[in-house]
Amino acid sequence: MKKIIIFALFAVTLAVAAAEIEFDFKSSYDGSTQKAAGFVPDDIASNKTPRPLLMIAHFMGGDRYTAKRSGYYEAAAKRGWLVAAPELHGKNTDGKTSCSALEAQHDMIDAMNYMTSNYPVDKTRVYVAGRSMGGMLTAIMLAKYPDIFAAGVAGQGCYDMTALNELAGGVEGAILRELGDDPFEAPRRSAANYAGNLATVPIIMWHGGSDGLVAPAQSERLFEAIAEYQKYIRPVFYIANSGHLNQNVGAEWICDQLLPYQMTSDAGLPVRWNPSLNIVTDEAKKFFYLDITPKNPAAFAKVECDLTGDFDRSPQLTGCKLKSGIAELNIRTSNVAELGVDLDLIPADLRPQSFKFERGSDTPDKFYTVSGGKKTERLIEFSKYEPARGDN
């Protein structure tokens, strides 16, 4: 028994000290075993200081070694960052053409969870990046997990699958094979449909001006959709006269773009604070202080909400308090079976005591709040509500 224990400890030490790592993880989506590769700084055994983690989504035809081949290990070594790239898998095709499938989304999160469980990750600096199919997935990951990723860089992606004529024939054909016959697969994988979500997280987009595989119009369309909700969105970085298959921008540039971003809140919360949210989801999950479960799994669930009250200043500002009365969270929902509001993720001085749903809207079957970790079911009250598209 003693020999076995010594060997196990020795194996762990080797794993921790190694610069390049490989690991298996179990998919939280379908239970399958998936593979990933990554980079760990050499000083990780002696220096337990939490450090940024960069998740890489590989391009069409890529694999778990894409991050290494693309120079991310060298860039991470200079900065003391961690890197992980899962081998993606799709719904109807293998991972090389997974095209932002739910399976691939969970691969990214599961690989990230492996890294945060086994290495000292700074959870305020978890980033995601990818180009082409990886750019497509990067945008979806930011949209679906805006309260996990500090920022992301999406390059050359297809963000609107209703416009596949803007893609070269081979790319279009690969996407159509992966989408299969389910009509919901195209919209649920189109980042443009999650524009309100993307207003709450920094997204940096780049595209070759002469891209012959994925038209620059795809990036332009996503930018315009997000700008309807977020006037401070960063413009797309276009590279004039540059095509698709060349790298265009390198790992060094991408890491430099991500460096300034951190998951912080002036309100002292563990995630960003948004008094107004416009959230779309294709599966049951949490977004900031909202917990959303769709009624019909073959359609989007949507929640719009605004915090209102007699505040002494904007509820986005630190130190904002109610001058009188109570704060109210006004809510509009569509295709929501169950909605939760986590009051612990709303600044203490602004926590609503009243929750009003738009009269005549598709209200949820069940509504509850969470305070101090305790769930309380509530009756649904109605009001006339016209949600505003706020600038986050």
Overall structural domain count: 2
Poorly predicted runs are 1-18
CATH topology of the largest domain: Rossmann fold
Q: Strand order, biggest sheet?
A: 1-2-4-3-5-6-7-8
Strand elements, count? 18
CATH superfamily of the largest domain: Alpha/Beta hydrolase fold, catalytic domain
Q: If helices are DSSP runs of H or I spanning 4 or more residues, what is the number of helices?
A: 10
Q: Which word captures the global form?
A: globular
Q: Determine the N-to-C terminus distance.
A: 58 Å
Radius of gyration over alpha carbons? 22 Å
Beta-strand level of the residues, as a percent range?
Answer: 25-35%
Q: Structural class, from secondary structure content?
A: alpha/beta
Largest sheet: 8 strands, mixed
Estimated helix fraction = 10-25%
What is the architecture of the largest domain at the second tier of CATH?
3-Layer(aba) Sandwich
Instruction: Supply the CATH class of the largest domain.
Output: Alpha Beta
